[in-house]
From TrEMBL:
PANTHER family: DNA-3-METHYLADENINE GLYCOSYLASE 1, DNA-3-METHYLADENINE GLYCOSYLASE I
Protein name: DNA-3-methyladenine glycosylase I
Annotated source species: Microbispora siamensis
NCBIfam families: tag (TIGR00624)
InterPro entries reported for this sequence: Adenine_glyco, DNA-3mA_glycosylase, DNA_glycosylase, Tag
Domain of life: Bacteria
One protein family per Pfam: Adenine_glyco
Length: 197
């Protein structure tokens, strides 16, 4: 954990970058539902693999423009011309395998019975031990391994257990804000309210 200049305690990974601090305070761990919104997070987590999340965060608007706002039906019809366009787009991470995976994942998402968001949220974990420090936060869990296996079964790519766990953390399937973090209780309340619906 880190005490920032504003006197608030945050998870240590939030650092001092304004982009990271805003993402930590306003987005990370808060529940995200909706097929296109979940598809966006899966895509960005896949692109992040091997890179800093800050790199992806700073390019997120460019990714949204390049990938048609992460509309699943729009990305699903991308063809080789679109792949080449994306490979030439300096505003995003230009990795052919990840770009092709995003297109394949959109096509797979169209075929998920009940929708992508519902499938992913089936793997929401019950609240467990609250992490005291970042050292208490796992890189993967049995739940993320099961989610990754299910996504791969549905035809998704670039969704291993570690990437699946990062997705789960980002969209509220688990709450890994550390115990003293100033947003932990708010995130817990939002996730609990969502589960009651």
């Amino acid at each position: 954990m880190t005490v920032h200049d504003d006197g608030l305690v945050r998870c240590g990974w939030a650092g001092t970058s304004p982009d990271y601090v805003a993402y930590h305070d306003e987005e990370w761990g808060r529940p995200v539902r909706g097929d296109d919104l979940v598809f966006e997070r899966i895509t960005l987590e896949a692109f992040q693999s091997g890179l800093s999340w800050l790199t992806i965060l700073r390019k997120r608007d460019n990714f949204r423009k390049a990938f048609a706002g992460f509309s699943i039906p729009a990305v699903a019809v991308f063809d080789e011309v679109d792949v080449e366009r994306l490979l030439a787009d300096a505003g995003i991470v230009r990795n052919r395998a990840k770009i092709e995976a995003a297109v394949a994942n959109a096509r797979a998402a169209l075929e998920v019975p009940g929708g992508l968001s519902a499938l992913v949220w089936k793997y929401a974990e019950e609240p467990g031990r609250v992490p005291a420090t970042l050292a208490d936060v796992p890189a993967r869990t049995a739940g993320s391994t099961a989610l990754a296996k299910e996504l791969r079964k549905q035809g998704f790519r670039f969704v291993g257990p570690t990437t699946a766990y990062a997705l789960m953390q980002a969209i509220g399937l688990v709450n890994d804000h550390v115990a003293d973090c100033h947003v932990r209780e708010a995130v817990t309340a939002q996730v609990s309210a969502l589960r009651r619906v």
